[in-house]
Specification:
The complex is a heterodimer.
Chain A lengths: L1 H16 L1 H18 L10 E7 L5 H7 L4 E5 L2 H10 L4 E5 L12 E4 L4 H23 L18 H31 L2 H6 L5 H30 L8 H25 L3 H18 L11 H8 L2 H15 L7 H21 L4
Parallel strand pairs in A: 1-2, 1-3
Antiparallel strand pairs in A: 3-4
Chain B lengths: L2 E12 L2 E12 L3 E5 L6 H8 L7 E6 L2 E2 L4 H7 E4 L11 H11 L6 H7 L15 H12 L6 E5 L7 H16 L3 E6 L2 H7 L2 E6 L2 E6 L1 H10 L13 H9 L7
Parallel strand pairs in B: 3-8, 3-9, 6-7, 7-8
Antiparallel strand pairs in B: 1-2, 1-4, 4-5, 9-10
Classes of the chains: A mainly alpha, B alpha/beta.
Chain lengths: ~350, ~250
């Protein structure tokens, strides 16, 4: 027991003194969240509208100018259409010379077919402005729409992303951390040197696993803590549940790391194998983007990825406040993976 | 008990290759015993079987009254081992490493005393990566001494070292000998064997072809009417180098 404790303390000490290890497992994930926090994925910010007015009547133009969502630039017809083609405008509205507020002229609206969302939104705004003008000109009665704003939990991209990145760094720490460090221990004869001491080999493995799981808990705490403090993370779940799911995922990925270190002789061999396993999961397990847009077959396959279970589980706890019983599919999935990968690790791991 | 190590009819195959072929020798308590031979002679394999790192194909090894085959863990408690290419964890200081290795034997080691033994006290807070080749070898001897072993095994301790570092290490090994430790070492340097060993076994192609004190082996050779083609010089080039660079003054 005492030896295990000393071994755990020693490996934590080594981890803390290793700048690269800290960088990869703690700093880099936070940095990724930081970078992505600048990306705005939600909604259309504004609609760029080119305005060409051939008439003397400015009723419509001044109405349009009051709409904040429109970014209006006016100019000659040829010039505006050229800008539309270059993609600088989402739409160009051409008001004919005969246009009058009380009339029934045909206005032409050119849409940028590449900016579908923006152009559609713009089209509705322009249509709405025309209707409004007619209402005003004819003093027609209309229904009033009362608007009240309600504060909802507006989840941002960070709320989606941070649990995903946390899952990813648990995966990377397990697979790369273990695989690389054991290949190096083996290659440099350090494991061999340990074999001539009377220390039970299991003590060493147990200590390695436990110290890495401790580091994993630290990752969970730091990511969630930094998320709440700096990135406005809407964390509503329980940290304890995060750690439980994280640890279960950790066992899966540590086992994969041990198995890889067993079949590789050098860093050169272990790197491609580790990438082969982790890259597809990183891309397809819903770490950065929701898997809803994946084609059907890919959706079904990625459902069973261990990283999918881990990311979905952590995310459900973080932003929905899911309790562990709610997460039985994820927990079962991870437990099944843990059994399979542990079995492979025990079979594949070699001391020499 | 006179012999602390008895090796009898030891054998090891690697496929068709007989790496160790019926090797027998014994080592007396307090003796420095050298296994001498070219690369691939089977020296390391022999040591590794004694050190419990490799299973024995045939034969018997009795170490301090323990059969290596039956009681490997007890044997490990009583031996100190410097492997040919042993290295240690990064990012632990020499002191921390010695304490950790002590724990592996269930004892509280005294790092500074061990470092004194190999003249590395001033490096107590360094990492192994910051040591020179000779210092690394001396440290790995210190690590092999954490459990106050009955026998110390050194596998080619001076291979790859420059002459000054080699002499320095010889000094350390001689001092450990005067403290009464039994030492078994392998080398392919004749000079080293002559300098350090009470007795040597010469090994070639898996077999021991001669065994005895160095001077005795030389006398036997001369007795067979051997004459050197060229008379040995009183000094050789290595002596010149050492003399000019002042090995005893400079720490490598």
């Amino acid at each position: 027991m005492r030896l295990k404790l000393k071994l755990i303390l020693s490996s934590l000490k080594m981890f803390m003194r290793q700048r690269e290890a800290i960088l990869w497992s703690l700093v880099l994930p936070l940095f990724m969240v930081f970078l992505f926090s600048f990306v705005k994925f939600d909604g259309v910010g504004h609609v760029s509208l080119g305005l060409v007015n051939h008439s003397q009547d400015t009723t419509l133009v001044s109405m349009l100018r009051q709409i904040q969502m429109l970014k209006i630039s006016s100019g000659a017809e040829g010039e505006e259409l050229a800008r539309l083609q270059k993609g600088e405008r989402a739409l160009v509205l051409v008001i004919p010379a005969s246009f009058q507020a009380r009339g029934n002229d045909a206005l032409t609206l050119y849409l940028n077919a590449e900016k579908v969302q923006e152009a559609q939104a713009g089209k509705m705004i322009v249509q709405r402005a025309l209707d409004e003008m007619i209402f005003q000109q004819n003093h027609l009665p209309r229904h009033a729409l009362h608007v009240e704003s309600v504060n909802s939990r507006n989840l941002s991209y960070i709320d989606f992303l941070l649990p995903g990145i946390l899952a990813m760094s648990i995966m990377q720490g397990g697979v790369f951390g273990v695989a690389f460090s054991f290949v190096i221990l083996k290659k440099r004869g350090i494991l061999r040197r340990l074999l001539v001491t009377p220390m039970p080999t299991s003590d060493f493995i147990v200590a390695q696993v436990l110290s890495r799981l401790l580091i994993l808990m630290l990752q969970v705490l730091i990511m969630v803590g930094a998320g709440i403090l700096f990135f406005d993370l809407h964390f509503v779940g329980s940290l304890f549940n995060m750690v439980v799911v994280g640890l279960l995922g950790g066992v899966v990925f540590l086992s994969i790391g041990f198995a890889l270190s067993g079949v590789s002789k050098s860093e050169d061999q272990v790197a491609p194998l580790a990438n082969l396993i982790t890259l597809p999961m990183m891309m397809l397990s819903g770490v950065f983007f929701s898997r809803t847009n994946l084609p059907g077959f890919a959706h079904v396959i990625t459902d069973f990825f261990p990283l999918t279970y881990l990311a979905d589980g952590l995310r459900a706890i973080a932003i929905e406040g899911a309790a562990l019983p709610d997460l039985y599919p994820q927990l079962l999935g991870l437990a099944a993976w843990a059994m399979v990968t542990l079995f492979i690790a025990v079979k594949a791991f070699r001391w020499e | 008990m006179n012999h602390v190590l008895q090796v009898t009819h030891l054998k090891k195959h690697y496929g068709d290759l007989l790496a160790v072929d019926d090797v027998s020798f014994e080592v007396a308590r307090g003796e420095v015993f050298g296994i001498l031979g070219p690369n691939g002679a089977g020296k390391t394999t022999t040591l590794e079987m004694i050190e419990t790192l490799r299973p024995l194909d045939a034969g018997e090894v009795v170490l301090d009254g323990l059969d290596v085959r039956n009681e490997p863990r007890k044997v490990k408690q009583r031996i100190g081992v410097q492997l040919q290419s042993s290295s240690f964890f990064d990012k632990l200081t020499l002191t921390e490493l010695l304490l950790l290795f002590g724990e592996m034997y269930g004892r509280h080691s005294d790092p500074l005393a061990l470092l004194d033994e190999v003249e590395l006290r001033d490096k107590a807070k360094s990492y192994v990566a910051q040591l020179s080749g000779g210092q690394k070898q001396r440290f790995s001897i210190a690590a092999a001494l954490v459990n106050d072993p009955v026998i110390l095994f050194l596998d080619e301790p001076t291979t790859g070292l420059d002459p000054q570092a080699r002499r320095h290490l010889w000094g350390v090994i001689k001092r450990i000998r005067t403290e009464g430790k039994t030492i078994v070492l392998t080398t392919h340097y004749m000079e080293e064997a002559e300098e350090l060993c009470d007795r040597v076994a010469i090994m070639d192609r898996g077999k021991i072809i001669a065994n005895g004190p160095p001077q005795e082996l030389i006398q036997q050779l001369l007795g067979r009417g051997f004459k050197k083609a060229r008379v040995e010089r009183l000094a050789n080039l290595e002596d010149v180098f050492l003399n000019l660079t002042g090995h005893s003054l400079r720490d490598e």
